[in-house]
Amino acid sequence: MPRKSHASFKTTAPEVRKGESLFQKKAFLIACEGVCTEPNYIKNLVKIEKLNKNIAEGTTVIIAPHQHSDPCGVLTDLLSISDKEDFDECWIVIDRDAKEFKGKGFGGHTKENFDKAIKYASENNIKVAFSNPCFELWIVLHFEYRDTECSRESIQKKALEKVNSLLPQNKKLKNVDELKSFDELYSILKDKTSLAIKFSEKLSENEAKQKNPSTSVHRLVSTITTSTMLHIGDENK
């Protein structure tokens, strides 16, 4: 990735009159645990919301090269970017993804790995969008509220079912692997984003304790979209 100067990202908002609002360009650097699902969702979000003018045209969102699939490794991927200080915000997108040793759910990582990533991210001023058990919980919350503990395999199957409910018969996804590689995920979910945010916030107590189920992906989504709008208040009116 070519190095970009600090000045190429950081911007100073021009003077505007009271009551006006404008977009402020920002630069985001994001490292994801998933090699496809999360990057595809974020890239599609940026593309769609720039077209909808909900993100400043000059806003930059860079996905860090993917080398690792565990929380600490994802943080390493981000920290290895030489010009990370040139970005306004740095994020890692990770899963709690507890270890499983049977069936199709085999995999995951330790709580120690997850906890270390959270700790070191905070120490390095890096923000975290996590999901417990996995990113697909965020997808399911676009359709329904879930407050009971769930496995990675079950929530991925539910996400596949929900996404397929929005697709025409000839475009339905055959399995979870196809869901992971689906590059128009945000575009079909965008009209339900406010509901997903509402349900995610309803799980705030779980999020604070990083319990299953919980997610903070809504914070990243809101930061990329809503928070790029600079509001000029009328407090002296």
Protein architecture, described:
With about 240 residues, the protein is an alpha/beta fold. It is built from 11 helices and 7 strands. The chain has helices spanning about 5-10, 35-50, 70-80, 110-125, 135-140, 150-165, 175-180, 185-190, 195-200, 205-210, 215-225, and strands at about 20-25, 25-30, 60-65, 90-95, 125-130, 215, 230. The strands form 2 sheets. It has a 5-stranded mixed sheet, sandwiched between helices. The radius of gyration is 18 Å and the shape is globular.
Give the assembly state of these chains.
single chain
Shape: globular
Termini separation = 47 Å
- Look at the helices and sheets and give the structural class: alpha/beta
Cα gyration radius (Å): 18 Å
Strand order of the largest sheet: 3-2-4-5-6
The biggest sheet, with number of strands, parallel, antiparallel or mixed sense and barrel status, is: 5 strands, mixed
Low-confidence stretches: 1-21, 227-237
Helix content: 25-40%
Enumerate how many helices there are, as a single number: 11
Number of beta-strand segments: 7
Mean pLDDT, rounded to whole units?
Answer: 86
Write the layout of secondary structure elements.
Layout: H1 6-9, E1 21-23, E2 27-32, H2 37-51, E3 60-63, H3 71-79, E4 89-95, H4 111-123, E5 127-132, H5 136-140, H6 152-164, H7 176-181, H8 185-189, H9 193-202, H10 204-209, E6 214-215, H11 217-224, E7 229-231
Parallel strand pairs: 2-3, 2-4, 4-5
Antiparallel strand pairs: 1-7, 5-6
